[in-house]
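Running this now, will post back.
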Amino acid sequence: MRSDLLSDTQPTRIADRKRRNLLWLLWVILGIGILGVTIVAGGILGYRSGSDEGARFQAAQAVSSLQEQYDLGIQDFNAGRYDLARQRFEYVLSLDPDYPGLLDKLAEVMGILFATATPSPLPPTETPLPTRDLSPVEDIFLRASEAFNQGDWNTTIDTLVALRREDPLYRVVEVDSLLYRTLLNRGIDKIRLESNLEGGIYDLALAERFGPISAIAQNWRNLARLYLIGSSFWEVYPEQAVYYFGLVASGAPFLRDASGWTARERYRASLIHYADQLVKRGDLCAAQEYYALALAIRGDTLIDPVATAVAIQCFSPTARALTGTPTESVTPTATGTILSPTFTPTLLLSTTNTVTQMPSPSLTNTTIPSSTPTPTQVFTVTPSNTATVVIPSPLETPSATP
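Update: finished.
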């Protein structure tokens, strides 16, 4: 009986216990939920409160800044700094259009500024420059071109120099080119036709300032330099004169200086002078060779007997030297004066001659010395300062006959 009673009451106790546990669980969940809601609500309320406080602080700062700028504007206004006061009032107006008293002060400042403002000056009106009349310089250039085409080198250069004085920038490249070609032509003509060797060398040097000279001009300049070098040895060092005039005579036998002596005649006279010098030294065979060269260029009735006598003595079985001192006689010729000795053979002395080896009078090439005589004529032509100079075409080859 008792066991039956226990068996009837035990399930009821277990069910009550489960209900109590479930109830506690619900209360815990409910408490956690209420706590979470409370925390979230508190956070939201705190954020709103902080935002409102920040906004109120910023508003207070803005009001303080506006007040400060307005007060500074009043100080600037009282100090006469009207433009700075205007800027401060406009700043306050942009942030608070209803700021008390602001519009009145701003209007007062603007009135003062407009009353004292000075009108800005009008931009100056440029006076148009009259168009330059280039006809005078064009006429000068045309005259120079016509003179060049006619071969009047002096007129061409004088006209171009006058043009440069009138307008240094007019057709710079063309004027430089015309000056270059004119100086080149005039320099060659002075050497080849006018017997003005120094002036021709100087003109070619001026042309070289505008551009490299042609091979033809360089050849004429070298011949003129050789002639002048030979003239410096004339009748003083006949051996050197023979050498230099021999070079010139091989290339331009009719080249001459102001004296009228051609290179061939100077070469011939130098051969005779040197042969006379060899006779004085007793070197008859060498003298005979130079006399023979001189007579091959042109016969001479005064030199021929002397050359014959020297040749006889040189080629005799026993070489003999002529005694006595040759007396020089002045023999005028068509191209100059030649000093030719006349011998009167007397006692023949037996001797053995040693032929002195002299430089051959045959024509050889030599290096032209760098130094050149200074010309007596001075002509100043200054080329324009241009970045690019167009060198004209080379000149035509001048004829070999002067």
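The first helix runs from residue 2 to 79. More later if anyone needs it.
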